[in-house]
Records
---
Amino acid sequence: MGVGQKKIAVHDLEVGMFVSDLDRPWHQTPFPIQGFHIRSQNDLRALVSYCKWVSVDVAESRDTVELSRVVRPAFGARGQYKREGREELHLPPLSIREPVKYTDVTTLKREMKLSRRLLEDAGVALEQLYAAVSGQEARDLRPVAAVVSKMVRSVVRQPDALLWLSRIQQHDNHIYQHALNTSVWAIVCGRQLGLNEGLLNHLGLGCLLSQVGKTQLPEELLSQEGQLGPEEYALYRTYVDKGMAMLEKSGLSRAVLSVVQGHRERHNGSGFPVGVRGDRIPVLAKIAGLAEFFESLIEPRESLAEPMTPAKAVALLYDMRNIEFQDDLVESFIRAIGIYPTGSLVELTDGQRGIVISHSPERRLWPRVMVMTDRHHEPLKTARVVDLAKYNESRTAADIIAIKECLAHGTGGLDPVGYDVTGAESRWSLSRLVSR
């Protein structure tokens, strides 16, 4: 059955409806993704303040929650309730002390050249550290800390370069790659929140060390992450405590250890190892947990099912606001990485296919895309970069080129490794790209 759209005044909206379109461009509103389910009265109030009417997908609408049966505490500061079997927890917005406002100070091309070896060095340092820790050898954290400091400085200068490199880098050991990618996502999110460089260093190092306890688990167990039975999952959950035991005499700061200990805790208390909730989870651990979960959704694993596309993973995160992750943290994460995060394989509305290399917060639906096929899906000899926001800026709706859909990992042999993203834009004009 097809999905039908219905135009409706915002005052007639109800919790449970799926909003598919607005009466104004999405980037002019605070909603971080295009298309979302209304899950609370806060969502309704936000829509009323920005729009007069919206379109809803009739077939997508969920059953409306009976709000009159929801019991809230006095003053409504920290209401909590259950919906569809999942407990929600509402907290005041995150408060970052003396937030830093970062701006890009270099180009993607220049930063990519500076950081190209950075993740390789990080992988080597991390592999050596994990081997030392698991073998009870002397643990020298200085090489890893030095790499984290370089990663932070790179993200501070230009966040997309390290994201791009981490998405296309290959590593033989899943644990190391997972830790590296989680660290990059987390640092990028922390930059968006305004964390100072010292906190970003604590966050990045904590993420790199967060997986160390997995070296004490059987390899066959790790190869089936996400498909574990009750007994296997009970053993899997011990990796956090094992990691803390391995690091307890390392001299690490409490901030770093809080990331290792708390990255699997969840906002509504459904996480592990302790099951703490809400404001009892340190902010750095909240960021790390969100980044680690996102990476687990999109990372390709040979032994597991096809990973989610980044766009679907973003939509899932948005639907988990105030359930497993705090709502304003989710929205900050999405603003930081975009609707189509760096590394997303996409198909454009004219049939060309490519990969997202960066995005603009002001034009979240129009990122920069490195196109690797023509409109007939035939591979190009040389990749070509198009900035959709700049290209569409002065064009009519009929002439706009946008992203049609996010593609699954490995679609059509789309492999960015064989193309040079740093020099592509300078050799090709936008008009030449879109005329094909």
---
Amino acid sequence: MKSLYLRSGLALVCAALLNACGGGNGNLALSGTITGLTKPDLVLINNKTGEKLPIPANTSTFVFTKLAAVDEEFNVTVSTPPTGGSCKPVGTSNVGKANAYTSYSIQFACQANPWTLGGTVTGLTSSGLILANGADTVSVLPPASAGAPVSFTFGTKVGDGSPYGVTVLAQPKDPAQVCTLSNNVGTMPGSDFSGVTVTCK
């Protein structure tokens, strides 16, 4: 008799725990986290139900409105990428069967589209010119043909919509020259930008 009471009590405790964790048919909210989303217009979709979920810019969490049953399959992917960016699932967290663990651990990582930043140097006759965009630097050598313009690009790409600010880190020398900049501060457009102009005298 005592054993029967004990078993019944354990069953009630287990049921309560399942309820608290969202167990049972149609109780599990498919949800997760997003990192690096700075762009608008992202739409996620659960391909198993067809539900699409718009995600605003700078969002770090999401929850689908259609609840899933225990062991119901889910497959969450990107239906529409963010404007000027991209998002990918982290590992296989976006695919599986719903339970108290998997339903809340879907993860996506996003980034702004990377673009190349560069420009043109004119009038350079000496070596030693170093340009910088934040911590990223590039050395520019004088052209083989005197007076010819020299193109340059920074090695680290800049994210779509991110600010850039090019400065002269070191002026050319032997003989000394002074180089000035134009179009060197701005926001990265949705493409490579090679409009930074450096004039040396």
